[in-house]
Amino acid sequence: MKLEIGRIIIKDIQLGTENSVKEGVLTVNSEGLIAKLKEDDRIKDVKLDVAKPGDKVRIIPVKDVIEPRVKIEGGNNGFPGVTSKQAQCGEGKTNVLFGAAVVTIGDVVGFQEGVIDMWGEGAKWTPFSKTLNLTVDISVVDGLAPHVHEETVRLAGLKAGEYVGLAGKDLTPDEVITYEMGNIFEETAKYPKLPKVLYAEMMITQGLLHDTYIYGVNAQTILPTVLHPFEELDNAVVSGNCVAACDKITTYQHQNNSVIEDLYAQHGKEINFLGCIMVPEHTTLAGKLRVSTYVLKLAKMFGADAVMVSEEGYGNPDSDLLMICKKCEDAGIITQLITDECAGRDGMDQPLADTAKEAVAVVSGGNVSHVVTLPPAEKVIGNAASIAVLAGGWEGALLEDGTLMCELNAVIGATSEIGFHNVTCRLY
């Protein structure tokens, strides 16, 4: 499979009357985009705005972040199975408006969306303070059930990403990144002495408002399944969950999955990267036992020497993470875990809800309970008062002068468990 990602470097963003990129400036046809989104009769109103790195702007409550793209060759444009007909992702050519992002906002279900500050203390904690953001604030008609409301906003964000991405259709990319791998037998023949590594990516799939989609299929309904790593980098996976913002994997992060990027960078050098296992997270014990056993079975079938496991969310998914670890380690397959910690505001509580002695290689994305104080913004896009009902916020978290006090729980991407974030470690 071969995929070429063409990066069109975006240096600025503005609203206008045409959809174009000229000398690095992305102009979005605001009336055209609003008309496109309002084709869905469940949408009552759409407000567009832009937020740039360094602006004293706060965006709240954020639902999802999407990278605008356009398919140039192979497959279908957009998100196959969701906004376009089914097609194979992961091959052909895709142009990306690199540096730009679509950010959907609006009070969706009253909890568990997040905050992006474009400057100062808040900007340090979210990777989306560095992107040139087109914000899409969506109001829906009265009477929609919460899960229909979520679906409406989710689809609107994806359609907006697709619409804006068309601006890059006829442009020559500033740089092209080529991903190429043969089938597993070919790669293993090329690198017979390298350790064979699988990536098990856990996804929130816990019911209404807590789901992830692969080619439009709700992953809650699947057994762990094998995905070529390039498929996820090419729009096959979409976020549809309203979990704590800090470790929610947005659609943008699926499109730029850091674990896949890093494993592919080592493919043929230090490891033989076999591919991805997409692992649904269930709330029942039976579900957790089933998927952990199934991951082990797939790892054995592929002859994996090691499995990298990343989590989404925290709390009961910690058990899934540790079950996969224990079963693989007991079978002689090395595991490397990526998680975050819910260790209390002083960092002294037990960080995970479960533990296993086999878990000896664990990377932490940070403490979700760490409290930050975010100074008043000159402009708020959305509704600052919603912090009271976000995970990581509370009644009184918004002070009279506009200062926001909250846990990292509320900051989009602050403790990403696929490593797409700003937190790092320092060796003393």
UniProtKB/TrEMBL annotation:
It comes from the Bacteria. Pfam families: Gly_reductase. This is Glycine/sarcosine/betaine reductase component B subunit. It comes from Dehalobacterium formicoaceticum.
